Structure formats: structure tokens, C-alpha cells
User: Which sequence fits this backbone?
């Protein structure tokens, strides 16, 4: 839209940037002897990076230059954290790419490089987010609440402690699984004597072995081709684990391979695996489905996210309606909720395995305002 | 354009008034009109991108007394050659490489005089100046100016005084930008007489500035390319919430598998 307002803002930006340019011209004079970066060697990966950089639009290049300047100014510790997080995301991108079904990978490979990278990065980000949420949900309630209520520094300390506890737990878990997996006492000792990081890696080996043994015993889920399973089996343990998590959406019974004796289900919750609850779970995980995301490859990032959310929401509504988990006026009120409230409510229902009964949504006027909620104590009576 | 498009665009335009603020536009992202109108969706996305760009521009950083010095020099330039057409200002702007249209100096002077009357120039210059200037900005602005200049060449073809009002506005603003910037550089370098004699012409300054900026930008780009993965992932990381970032730093799929096993053990 070439409105006068827009034009005016553009011109103002042009005038402002003109001032910058001339200041830059002066600075360039003082920096003219600055050495070029010494690393002139060209490797394949660097060539790829250069190609990727060259393919970016100018404004994104500029944003990257500014981000580099910010990166250089970060304190060492923050920069190290950032590197660790970037490393985790990179690992997740690799896992996501390698665990894609053949058709999805071919489709992704056929896209222009920038689009491909964007989509892969979105998928990795969605996985990382979901993994964090899954981990939180699996923690004991008290521990989760402590984490959620903690200040940033305290939260980091709690998470470090949690990681340490997990490391200690690896040994016990391997010992518990040893008879089922046919490990000798000597093998278990060898595993437990490994340094922490190696032991973590080995634990995923153990999980993979257990899953494949389960499928060997029980057979493949209906509709799954042996060739596909064969390919999944050939993946390294971390990629195998992610592939299995994603396959669970298509073949819900594979969840048993990851968790043959599910604790929560053992408490008599039959709704958890009912078809409409499976449909609901699948609807809520539309953003994690690579096929679904790739279907929207032509759209921009924002529009794609919006569309995925909208699709997920419509399907979740249909599944809830079909399973009669929400009825009458509640259905209308649920439909009218903003996205965040809608997904939180349905997620809570899903996590309870449907045990909390039909979803009830209070009319807006009955919902306490923020100030009421914050001032009322748990013991207060109205 | 339908009535609903018109209404949506009016709302958008109302939101765009004032300082850049990308978050202001996210409210409109939920407008139901967007569900059925791709054109308006595209416009909103463009405006969001522009707001982001504008918000990311740093404030300029020039010496605090520049406005005073610049205004003083302009007065001196005017008093030195009050009758000669163009005078010092004309020679300042007589740049072969830039090919500024005839009469531009007069129009710039008019524009500057008006700005001075309203104290806008001082306000603009004084407000401006606490910033790091992006290193490739010179390159980008110059290419932008080049495009505008090629349009400006057409202006003298039109009858004097009948140029379209938007072109006059563009000319005035660009010319003012060149004047302000070039004078600033010239003051620093002493080419207007403050720092002794110099054989550098303003056009020389422009060309030299551009030439020196390129290796610096190329060097920065090399660094960007070296760190590209990290920088691209950083963009994604910034979209995570604080809790999600902490979880990403400390825990991974192994922890999830361990928690599954722990739940299983509790269950059995």
C-alpha cells in the first residue's frame, strides 16, 4: 500500500539513513587499514554457508550483521550459553531432517535453499519447544511448580540439579532394564563406569535396543511397511528416538515400544488411547507434523504458523465434539476462546487422559479478573 | 477494493502513525478480514517488515555541537556569496559523479531555511546522535540515492515549477540529507575551511567513503558467514521463552527417555 503515511515513513528513513551513510564514510576512513579476516580457506561447508548468506534478502543480511555485532559484545558466559543453545538446535535440525519420511525429505530437498532452511529451522524449533513441554509434564508436579515459580537464576540452578539427578538415574535404570535386554552384570558395570556424557549417549542406545526388541516381539503396527521400519532402525539412537516419537502420531500403538508398561495408563485410564483422544492428540500436534508443514511451504512463516494453528484448532474442536468431551454452551464458549486459552485448556484435558470429564468453560463474566485472582487467597471464601 | 478492505486499511494506517513499533501491528494480525483477503494480509506483512526495519535502525551518532557548527557554516556560506547563483552551496553540490539536477542548491537552501525557521533542523540534529552506524549503510544508501538520482534527471525536462509535489518532496528530503551529511563530513575533515585547506571535493569524499566502506563490509560479511549457523539459530532461540531457553540449555531427549523410564518404573 503506497499510502502517504508509508511514503512519508520511508522518506524519513531515507533521510535518517543518509545521515548515517556519511558518518560511515568518515568512519571508513579511519578503518581503511583494518585487516581483512585472515581465514581465506574455503571448505565445502563454508561454501554452503556463503551460498546461503548470498541467497538472503538484504534486510536479513543486515539483521545478521547487527546480530554479529551484538554477539561480539555479549559477556563470555552468555555467549557460551547461546552457543550451547544453538548447538542443541543444530542437533535437533539434524535429527528432524534424518528422521523425515522419504516423501517429506524429497519434498524438502526440492525446495529453494532459503525456504528449505527456514522450514527445517521451524521444524527443529517446534520439536525443541515440544520436547521442553513434554519434559515439564513428565516431572513430578511439585518439581514442575518449583521450576515454573523460580526466578531465572534459581531456575537455572534447579535445572542443573535436575540434570545431575538424571545422570545418577541412568545407572539405576540400566540396571533395572538389564534382565529384559539380556545385559550381563559386567556389561552393566562397564556402562555405568562411563563418563557422564558418554553414559547419556549409551542410554539412548539402550532405549533403542529395547524398542526394536519390543517391535520384533509384537510385530509392526498395522499399515506400517517393513521397509520404513528398517530405515528407522538404521538411524543413530537420538535420531531413532525422535523418529519414533513422530511415528507415534501415525501409529499410536508404537507408543508401547517406547513405554511398554506405561505407569499412568496402569491406573485404569482407558480414555488415553481411545480413537477420539488419539485424534485430539494428533490435532494438537499438527505443528509437529512435517508433512503438514511442508504442504504450506509456499506460504510465509507467519502465515504458515497461523494456518497450522487454525487447522489444529478446528480438528481439536471436531474431535472434542465427536467424542462428546464438550457439549452445548461449553462448545460455543470453547470456540470463542482466544488461541492461547483454548490450547491450554485442551492440553490440560489431554494430559489428564480425559479423566477430568467433559470440558466446562465458564462464561467470560464468571472468570475472575486478573486483580481478583491476585488478591484472593486460597483460603478465602466468597 | 471492498469496503472491508478499506476499513482494514484505515485501521492499519491509523496504527502506523508515530514512532516505529512492530508489536502494535500484531493486534491487527488477528483481524477477521485477513482470513478472507490475501491482499490485505500481504500489506500487513509488508508493513510489519517495514516497522521492524525502522525499529532496528539505530539513532545516528554525530558530534553534539554539529548542528550549531553546521548552521554557522551555512550562514557563512550564504554571506560569502549572497548574489552568486548557487555560491558555495552550489559548488558543494556540483558533483559530477552524483549528477544533481540544476537548481537543486536553490531548492535545498529554501528547504533548509524553512527547516531552520521552524527549528526542525536543530531538533533533528540534536536528537540524532547516539549511535553506532551499521557498516554497510553507506553502500545501501548510495545505491538508493543512485536510483533516486536517475529519477531526478528527468525533473528538468518538466516545466519549471510544475514538478509533481511528491517528486519535490523526495528531492528536498534527499538533497537535505546529502547537504546535512556532506557538511558534517566536510566539517570533520576541515574541507569547509575549519580544518585548513584540502583538495578533496565533496564528490571525492563520497567516492572515497564508498570505496573504503566496501572492504570493511566484506570483512564483516566474512565474519557473518563464519558464524552463520549460530547467528541463524540465534534468531530461532530468541523466539523461545525464558523457560524454554533454559530447558534447551540443560535437558535433551535423553532426559525425556529417562523420565519415561522413571514413570514406567513407578507404574509397575
Assistant:
Amino acid at each position: 500500500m503506497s499510502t502517504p503515511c508509508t511514503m512519508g515513513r520511508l522518506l524519513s528513513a531515507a533521510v535518517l539513513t543518509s545521515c548515517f551513510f556519511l558518518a560511515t564514510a568518515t568512519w571508513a576512513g579511519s578503518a581503511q587499514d583494518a585487516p581483512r579476516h585472515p581465514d581465506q580457506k574455503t571448505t565445502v561447508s563454508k561454501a554452503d554457508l556463503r551460498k546461503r548468506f548470498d541467497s538472503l534478502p538484504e534486510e536479513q543480511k543486515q539483521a545478521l550483521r547487527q546480530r554479529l555485532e551484538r554477539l561480539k559484545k555479549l559477556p563470555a558466559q552468555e555467549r557460551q550459553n547461546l552457543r550451547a543453545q544453538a548447538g542443541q538446535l543444530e542437533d535437533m535440525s539434524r535429527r528432524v531432517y534424518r528422521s523425515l519420511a522419504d516423501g517429506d525429505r524429497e519434498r524438502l530437498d526440492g525446495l529453494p535453499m532459503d525456504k528449505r532452511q527456514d522450514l527445517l529451522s521451524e521444524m527443529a524449533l517446534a520439536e525443541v519447544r515440544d520436547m521442553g513441554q513434554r519434559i515439564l509434564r513428565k516431572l513430578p508436579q511439585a518439581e514442575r511448580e518449583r521450576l515454573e515459580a523460580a526466578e531465572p537464576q534459581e531456575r537455572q540452578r534447579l535445572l542443573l540439579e535436575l540434570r545431575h539427578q538424571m545422570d545418577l538415574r541412568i545407572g539405576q535404570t540400566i540396571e533395572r532394564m538389564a534382565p529384559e535386554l539380556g545385559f550381563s552384570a559386567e556389561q552393566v558395570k562397564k556402562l555405568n563406569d562411563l563418563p557422564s556424557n558418554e553414559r547419556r549417549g549409551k542410554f539412548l542406545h539402550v532405549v533403542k535396543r529395547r524398542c526394536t526388541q519390543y517391535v520384533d516381539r509384537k510385530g509392526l503396527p498395522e499399515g506400517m511397511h517393513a521397509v520404513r521400519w528398517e530405515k528407522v532402525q538404521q538411524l543413530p539412537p537420538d535420531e531413532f528416538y525422535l523418529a519414533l516419537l513422530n511415528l507415534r502420531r501415525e501409529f499410536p500403538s508404537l507408543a508401547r515400544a517406547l513405554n511398554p508398561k506405561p505407569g499412568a495408563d496402569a491406573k485404569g485410564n482407558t480414555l488415553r488411547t481411545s480413537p477420539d483422544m488419539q485424534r485430539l492428540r494428533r490435532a494438537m500436534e499438527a505443528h509437529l507434523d512435517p508433512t503438514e508443514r511442508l504442504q504450506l511451504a509456499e506460504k510465509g512463516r507467519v502465515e504458515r504458523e497461523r494456518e497450522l494453528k487454525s487447522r489444529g484448532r478446528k480438528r481439536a474442536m471436531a474431535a472434542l465434539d465427536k467424542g462428546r468431551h464438550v457439549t452445548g454452551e461449553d462448545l460455543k464458549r470453547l470456540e470463542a476462546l482466544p488461541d492461547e486459552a483454548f490450547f491450554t485448556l485442551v492440553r490440560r484435558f489431554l494430559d489428564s487422559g480425559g479423566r477430568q470429564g467433559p470440558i466446562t468453560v465458564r462464561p467470560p463474566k464468571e472468570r475472575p479478573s486478573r486483580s481478583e485472582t491476585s488478591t484472593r487467597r486460597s483460603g478465602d471464601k466468597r | 477494493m471492498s469496503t472491508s478492505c478499506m476499513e482494514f486499511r484505515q485501521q492499519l494506517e491509523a496504527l502506523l502513525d508515530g514512532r516505529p513499533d512492530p508489536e502494535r501491528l500484531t493486534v491487527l494480525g488477528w483481524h477477521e478480514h485477513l482470513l478472507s483477503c490475501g491482499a490485505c494480509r500481504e500489506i500487513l506483512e509488508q508493513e510489519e517488515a517495514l516497522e521492524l526495519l525502522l525499529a532496528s535502525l539505530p539513532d545516528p551518532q554525530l558530534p553534539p555541537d554539529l548542528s550549531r557548527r553546521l548552521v554557522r557554516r551555512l550562514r557563512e556560506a550564504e554571506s560569502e556569496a549572497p548574489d552568486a547563483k548557487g555560491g558555495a552551496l552550489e559548488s558543494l553540490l556540483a558533483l559530477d559523479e552524483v549528477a544533481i539536477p540544476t537548481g537543486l542548491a536553490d531548492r535545498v537552501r529554501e528547504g533548509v531555511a524553512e527547516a531552520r525557521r521552524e527549528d526542525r533542523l536543530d531538533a533533528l540534529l540534536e536528537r540524532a546522535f547516539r549511535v553506532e552506524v551499521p557498516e554497510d549503510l553507506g553502500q545501501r544508501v548510495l545505491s538508493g540515492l543512485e536510483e533516486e538520482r536517475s529519477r531526478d534527471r528527468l525533473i528538468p525536462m518538466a516545466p519549471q515549477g510544475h514538478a509533481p509535489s511528491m517528486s519535490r518532496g523526495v528531492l528536498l528530503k534527499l538533497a537535505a540529507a546529502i547537504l546535512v551529511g556532506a557538511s558534517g563530513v566536510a566539517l570533520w575533515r576541515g574541507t569547509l575551511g575549519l580544518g585548513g585547506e584540502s583538495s578533496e571535493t565533496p564528490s571525492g569524499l563520497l567516492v572515497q567513503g564508498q570505496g573504503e566502506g566496501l572492504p570493511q563490509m566484506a570483512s564483516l560479511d566474512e565474519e557473518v558467514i563464519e558464524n552463520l549457523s549460530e547467528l541463524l539459530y540465534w534468531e530461532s532461540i530468541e523466539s523461545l521463552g525464558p523457560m524454554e531457553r533454559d530447558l534447551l540449555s540443560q535437558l535433551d531427549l535423553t532426559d525425556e527417555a529417562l523420565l519415561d523410564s522413571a514413570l514406567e518404573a513407578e507404574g509397575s
